[in-house]
Structures are given as structure tokens and as C-alpha cells.
Inverse folding.
């Protein structure tokens, strides 16, 4: 049951994502070069933070595992 719900959510997400991309493109076309640079910087920040969080969690897990298993 949970698997079916997850698959349904994953299949529905691309529709919402493409709608956001069209809105971002419209804002950038009206805003100019400074606006485009700001949007690009925001995208980089949004992309980087999940990797940082996963990296920190993996490091903490490894450190605690190493203390328990010398």
C-alpha cells in the first residue's frame, strides 16, 4: 500500500515541477541579467544544502560507528 502511494506521488511531481520552471523563466525574461544571476545563485544554494546535510549525517554516523567498533 505504501509503495503504491509513493509511486503515485512520484508520478505526479513532474507536473508541479514543470509549472515552477515556466514561472521562473517568465520572471527571468522580465528581470534582466541581475535577476538571472540571482535566480541561478538561488538554484545552486537549493541544490547544495541537501548534499551538505547528507554529508554531515554520514560523517556523524561514521564517527559514532568508529567509536563503538575500534
Amino acid at each position: 500500500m505504501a509503495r503504491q502511494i509513493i509511486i503515485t506521488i512520484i508520478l505526479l511531481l513532474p507536473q508541479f515541477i514543470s509549472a515552477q520552471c515556466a514561472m521562473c523563466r517568465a520572471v527571468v525574461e522580465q528581470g534582466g541579467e541581475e535577476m538571472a544571476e540571482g535566480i541561478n545563485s538561488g538554484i545552486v544554494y537549493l541544490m547544495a544544502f541537501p548534499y551538505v546535510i547528507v554529508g554531515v549525517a554520514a560523517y556523524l554516523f561514521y564517527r559514532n560507528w568508529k567509536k563503538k567498533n575500534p
Summary: The radius of gyration is 19 Å. The chain has a mean pLDDT of 82. The helical segments are 2-31, 33-68. The first helix runs from residue 2 to 31.
